[in-house]
């Protein structure tokens, strides 16, 4: 997410590093590079210019605190201005109404149907709502099938009427069905086109007028850059929508849409899509996104995701096993499952401060744990609970069964042993010992 922009901003802000004070010359030099980085990320020229002017104004009007270097101050000013540009505060979704009606709009291929499913899943699992998905794309038969597949995947009912070609009538019938069957949220998936056209705009405007939704959301593919911003403006002129959804933020995106869309349409980004899975949806927090763009990570989101997957009962069991020296590979496997539930590994690594830069160019596969799982599944229950029993002949059998090498098995055993020791120290409060051990491990790979 935003790899190129992050790298270029980092280089731009490096200009001030080592300077004892902020001057008009070094600020101008830094901000020229910042503006160039924003333009390369497909941010509108006018917005990029206004952005750097505001940062310059604030930088020149401030004395650098003794505890701050000029470079640190500039990073803070750029972060604050980026946060403001992207909307300042996170905006929630309006769930008033009985039922709450959410109208989804956007171009074909923006990920609208998939995101309708993600939103339904989010409202069902995180907000304990009972959502109904309504298929109103009467032009693309595959869209109705796609929504039914998505609904089945997440356990949410889909209302459709294949013989009807009137999206207004279908949306009204869907809302009536929701009222009669106890659904408290209705998500209406409408037709998209390959480009903005008069017929499409007229149709979505008619649906909007007929159902009077509490929330109208515009779904946009973040990889389309400035085109996404221009499309959002066209839709907003007709619909006056309530918020933007940015999809495909996990792709090779330059980030221009995320940064400038709010200032063009004056509507908040409410959610972002960060992957293909149905739980790859995040509330959009401008300050957290600004921190990620500047390579500061996003520890708050990382902790929130960890808390969502944290099983207190499981943690207690593992704690007892560690105390009795009985932490085995089955426990290790359950820890891996919890990490996998938190989302894509690349996304998680991007939330760790400094990790983005360190891992640049590395392709972190979501199947990174696959060979570890294969090795553990090739062990007998006895071997999993007592790893010390793994002698040469057993390792040979496991390597053959898991399609891995003895070297990989030895590496896993070494990692497992280090992890077990560390967990034991953490539990015993041996902070000093742990620090010494971490120092000793620094050079290990």
From TrEMBL:
Record: residues binding GTP: 106-113, 189-193, 247-250
GO MF annotations in UniProt: 7S RNA binding; GTP binding; GTPase activity
Job description of the protein: Involved in targeting and insertion of nascent membrane proteins into the cytoplasmic membrane. Binds to the hydrophobic signal sequence of the ribosome-nascent chain (RNC) as it emerges from the ribosomes. The SRP-RNC complex is then targeted to the cytoplasmic membrane where it interacts with the SRP receptor FtsY.
SMART domains with a match to the protein in the record: AAA, SRP54, SRP54_N
Similarity comment text for this entry: Belongs to the GTP-binding SRP family. SRP54 subfamily.
InterPro entries: AAA+_ATPase (IPR003593), P-loop_NTPase (IPR027417), Signal_recog_part_SRP54_M_sf (IPR036891), Signal_recog_particl_SRP54_hlx (IPR013822), Signal_recog_particle_SRP54_M (IPR004125), SRP (IPR004780), SRP54 (IPR022941), SRP54_GTPase_dom (IPR000897)
Keywords: Cytoplasm, GTP-binding, Hydrolase, Nucleotide-binding, Ribonucleoprotein, RNA-binding, Signal recognition particle
Enzyme Commission (EC) number: 3.6.5.4
BP GO terms, sorted: SRP-dependent cotranslational protein targeting to membrane
Localization per record: Cytoplasm
Protein name per Swiss-Prot or TrEMBL: Signal recognition particle protein
CDD domains hit by this protein: SRP_G (cd18539)
NCBIfam families reported in the protein's UniProt record: ffh
Organism: Arenibacter echinorum
Domain (SRP54-type proteins GTP-binding) ranges: 268-281
Database matches in Pfam families: SRP54, SRP54_N, SRP_SPB
Keyword match Nucleotide-binding: yes
Gene Ontology CC entries for this record: signal recognition particle
Main enzyme class: hydrolase
Keyword DNA damage found: no
